[in-house]
Design goal:
By secondary structure, the chain is mainly α. The chain is 54% helix and 10% strand. It folds into two domains: 72 residues; 138 residues, Arc Repressor Mutant, subunit A (Orthogonal Bundle). Strands 1-3-2 form a three-stranded antiparallel sheet. The protein has a three-stranded antiparallel sheet with strand order 4-6-5. A hairpin with a 2-residue loop joins strand 2 and strand 3.
Length: 233
């Protein structure tokens, strides 16, 4: 058998060879799958003991299991690691990309959430934002919006919405004219704490002068009363 990375050894030390293979398969699938995985696909996600081993395998690498929905899982950065990386990632994302990304979150998540169309604690949406909305509200050159969308799609932060128009209508239009967009699969990798932080950032961006934004700023100015959870649950 191929020698295992030292970071994984302790996590699977007490498992049978078959169960070690199951845990390794689940780890690889979680880290590399474009979409979250259902428990039915992998024994190591269905079985609590093996799932704990997957969590122990992810932890030394700064990763953690993230429950996306009933019986559905992915992996993401631990909260303590995400806080360290957030500024670096923000600086790496061009300003125009951030503007387009925020518009998609507002029109596909924030507004539908306020209307009761999607669950409160999720950034997964089935309400698309059209290309025309992005061009109208961003007031950016269309070429800049198209380039930003291409970069956001490549990073998994944005994805095309399913096109339900008839095939003849799709073929007769340009690739951008009828396109609509949704938040991408990478948002499913956010932990509950990271989802809350993103929601707060959206409130601060869209309503900086509101009482809710003031409450968020005041809370952030106070030292945290809750110690950071550095160990996986």
């Amino acid at each position: 058998m191929t020698e295992m990375h030292p970071a994984f050894t302790a996590a699977v030390a007490d498992l049978s060879e078959r169960h070690r293979d199951e845990v390794m398969a689940a780890y690889a699938a979680l880290e590399h799958s474009w979409q979250p995985l259902h428990e039915s696909q992998l024994l190591a996600l269905r079985d609590a003991t093996l799932r704990r081993a997957v969590q122990q395998m992810l932890h030394p690498l700064g990763r953690t299991l993230v429950k996306v929905g009933p019986h559905t899982w992915t992996s993401g950065y631990r909260d303590d690691i995400a806080r360290e990386l957030s500024e670096e990632v923000l600086e790496a994302l061009p300003l125009v990309d951030r503007a387009v990304f925020v518009l998609i979150l507002i029109h596909s998540v924030a507004i539908p959430r306020s209307q009761g169309l999607i669950e409160l604690d999720t950034w997964i949406s089935s309400v698309p934002t059209t290309g025309e909305e992005l061009n109208r509200y961003s007031r950016l050159p269309r070429t800049a919006v198209r380039a930003a969308l291409a970069r956001l799609r490549a990073s998994g932060l944005v994805q095309f919405a399913p096109d339900r128009r008839p095939a003849q209508s799709r073929s007769s239009s340009s690739s951008n004219a009828g396109a609509s967009y949704l938040p991408g699969p990478q948002l499913a990798r956010l932990t509950p704490a990271a989802r809350r932080r993103l929601q707060e950032e959206l409130i601060l961006a869209a309503g900086a002068d509101t009482p809710l934004a003031a409450a968020i700023r005041a809370r952030r100015a106070r030292p945290s009363e809750e110690p950071a959870r550095l160990t996986a649950e």
